[in-house]
Structure formats: structure tokens, C-alpha cells
Amino acid sequence: MLRPPRVGDAADIWRIAKDSHVLDTNSSYAYLLWCRDFTGTSVVAEVDGRVVGFVIGYLRPQSPDTVFVWQVAVQRSEQGRGTGTALIRQLLDTVAPHGVSTLETTVSPDNPASIAMFAAVARRRGARMTRQPLFDPGVFPDRHAAEDLYRITPPNQEERR
Fold it and tell me: Which end of the chain is more exposed for a tag (fewer CB within 10 A), N or C?
């Protein structure tokens, strides 16, 4: 089942992010705020009453027609079942009626699984996905890979079967 997150989901979301070994793990407090303040731009996947995946995002203040996907993760036991793409598709279906015409996300070049997931969403929607450099490693205060900006436009078209 896909649904908006609740505050009680924050601990599970934090654990899934931490266990991914790919995402930057935010503080547990940050996930509590996501589950309280960004329920309209975030989705969790639940199986047998447990949260097994999530997508968290927000509408860009300077560009309210753009939803920025901050993180997507699926617990290892559920990977390969299309849960990640289902989460993103549900997010797009949720924000489309509110005038969202662009999805943005950043992905480091060493994460081909995420790139493929977003490309699959774009393909299924007949949308265009572009990539451009956004942050090079030198702007991060710690050791962090580059982050490329991916844009999917228009993300809210009816899916192709």
C-alpha cells in the first residue's frame, strides 16, 4: 500500500535511509519534520503494516511548479519489485493536480540504480529526462561525490502501457 507518511513512520524511514548505504542519512529529527510538514510531497510504501520504502520531496519555493525529490529508498528485502518507481509515480500523481510540471532530483554519477529508476519513470510517462552538473565535490565540506541534477518534464502525463 502506498500512502502519505505519518510522524510514527519517521523512525522506519530513518532506518531505511541509514541501511541503504547509499543515501546521506539525515538526523532522525529531520525525518520527523518530513513526516509532519511534507506529507503532500512524500509517500511511503507499506507491506503487512511495516514501512518498506519511501520518497520524500518538496515543492521548490522559487519554482512551485517543480517537485524536488530529496530521497528515495526501499528496504533491501523489497528491492527489485518496482517499489521505488511506484513511489515516484504516486508522488507525481499526488502533486500533478497542483500544477507541478517538473520533477527534479540529484543523483551522484556512481548510483546507476537511481538513474535507471528515474529514467524508467520518464519513459513510462513519455517525458523527457535531462542531466546537468549541479554540485561538484569541492563545494561539499566533507568527502562527497558530485551530484548531477536530473529534470523530468512533463512528469504528469498519463502513463504509457
Answer: C
